[in-house]
Design a protein that fits this description.
442 residues, Aminopeptidase, 2 domains, six-stranded mixed sheet, five-stranded mixed sheet, 13 helices, disordered N terminus, binds zinc ion
Length: 442
């Protein structure tokens, strides 16, 4: 396995130097333009299916939609049950080709939004922006995969041993049922491309791919006190809620002493009746990890803090920290993929894009000229790329979905003029990787 990854690295490095001055593939770019309206239709079809992480009926509809699309593209489709048994599981499509490359494309079907969100935030278009809940994160990613595969099918591209497409349904809640499956399938591939959105150009200045993402974790604080009648015998109680409040204040800034860690208390729960001194209270916090050694250090520091004498005597406090999603670090091999992506974006300059592709851009055609691709070193948002890369075997790149903004917030949108470049990027990248995998193994 080690030999295999070394071979893959050499191959990728060779590939980038070969492609640095590649000319634009005009037929492919024309085909990408012709595909734009179909991608917009896919976005409409998916955004109008609400699919929050706990919306089982909505996720079942999304899964069915994705299965049908993959089948129409020629994939052998199966549903992989989630490790925790939660429906609908993961949708997996397998394409078998005639080349050497083993590649996997991943995105997620769930969103952060509650049922009924479409009533207040309907799908609609305003100039270059297409709005809708989950349109960037991550239905834009799924639409990019479908659009690119359609392009490649039209081109008759088969230059891969196996191409796997994998969509999970629980990314937004930390991938509890899919993370290990993504990791295991990742280890069977040479390259994994992940389709989370990249920030909108109107926000970030240019489109991007992502080389790293924080890991996520959950911290839990539990206080055991003693319940008693709040009116008749409050002095017999040991108020767990009051102690919890003090512990939250004492611990809230501890993470600042641990490099690469971020922590915020986000949920709390205590008591069951107004007239009872609560005997038990608990709080949960969100943890972001940018240093693999950070979680152990943070937990040790939190334990030291909570072991100090309590504000409410005779209460017991325990604190735990679970790592939910590993960090994603693209490393040298992911960087090689990112540089390939950058060189492909370099082929997209004003001269070979039609006037149509510059519509509604601030500055018009000039803003589109010499299409930049930023390589973003890291984000505090978590991603499935961390699971995909966890075996250390595949080269992994994140952020290949559409450019957009407002995810996990309000008025989420994608930029329409990112569709064609993103279709061109994925299909050119796959063609390049497939052809060089053949050369490298001959
Ligand atoms: Zn996402």
């Amino acid at each position: 396995m080690r030999v295999k990854s070394l071979a893959c690295t050499t191959l990728l490095v060779a590939m980038v130097s070969l492609s640095a001055f590649a000319a634009t593939d005009h037929p492919l770019l024309d085909a990408a333009r012709a595909q734009e309206s179909a991608v917009i239709q896919s976005l409409h079809d998916m955004v109008t299916i609400e699919s929050g992480s706990d919306d089982h009926a909505g996720l079942a509809k999304m899964a069915k939609y994705c299965e049908d699309r993959l089948r129409a593209l020629g994939a052998k489709v199966e549903v992989v049950p989630a490790a925790n048994g939660k429906p609908p599981g993961l949708v997996k499509g397998i394409f078998t080709g005639t080349g050497k490359l083993r590649i996997m494309l991943i995105a997620h079907m769930d969103t952060v939004y509650r049922e009924g969100i479409l009533k207040t935030e309907p799908y609609h278009r305003d100039g270059n922006k297409l709005f809708g809940p989950g349109i960037a994160d991550d239905k834009g990613g799924i639409a990019t995969i479908f659009g690119s595969l359609e392009l490649l099918k039209q081109q008759g591209w088969k230059d891969y041993a196996q191409l796997t497409v994998l969509f999970d349904a629980d990314e937004e809640i930390g991938s509890p049922g899919s993370g290990a499956i993504i990791g295991a399938l990742g280890s069977e591939n040479d390259v994994v491309l992940s389709y989370e959105p990249s920030p909108a150009k109107v926000v970030a200045g240019s489109e991007a791919v992502l080389l790293g993402a924080a890991g996520t974790g959950a911290v839990k604080l539990e206080v055991q006190g003693r319940a008693s009648h709040a009116g008749a015998a409050p002095e017999e109680g040991r108020n767990a809620l009051v102690e919890l409040a003090d512990q939250i204040l004492k611990t809230r800034d501890v993470y600042k002493t641990v490099p690469g860690m971020q922590m915020n208390w986000t949920m709390a729960n205590a008591g069951g009746a107004r007239n009872q001194i609560p005997g038990h209270a608990e709080a949960t916090g969100d943890v972001r990890i940018s240093d693999p050694a950070g979680p152990d250090k943070l937990l040790a520091a939190l334990k030291a803090k909570t072991a100090e004498p309590p504000l409410v005597p005779d209460t017991t406090t325990t604190i735990t920290l679970d790592v939910l999603r590993p960090m994603f670090v693209a490393g040298d091999r992911g960087m090689t993929l990112a540089k390939l992506a950058q060189s492909i974006y370099g082929e997209l300059h004003a001269g070979n894009l039609s006037v149509d592709d510059t519509r509604d851009m601030p500055g018009g055609a000039m803003a589109f000229s010499g299409r930049n691709l930023m390589l973003v070193p890291g984000t505090t948002g978590g991603t499935d790329a961390g699971f995909a890369a966890s075996s250390g075997k595949p080269a992994v790149l994140e952020g290949l979905g559409l450019a957009g903004w407002g995810y996990h917030a309000k008025n989420e949108y994608i930029e329409v003029d990112s569709i064609v470049p993103r279709l061109y990027l994925t299909s050119r990248m796959l063609i390049e990787l497939g052809s060089k995998a053949d050369v490298g193994t001959r």
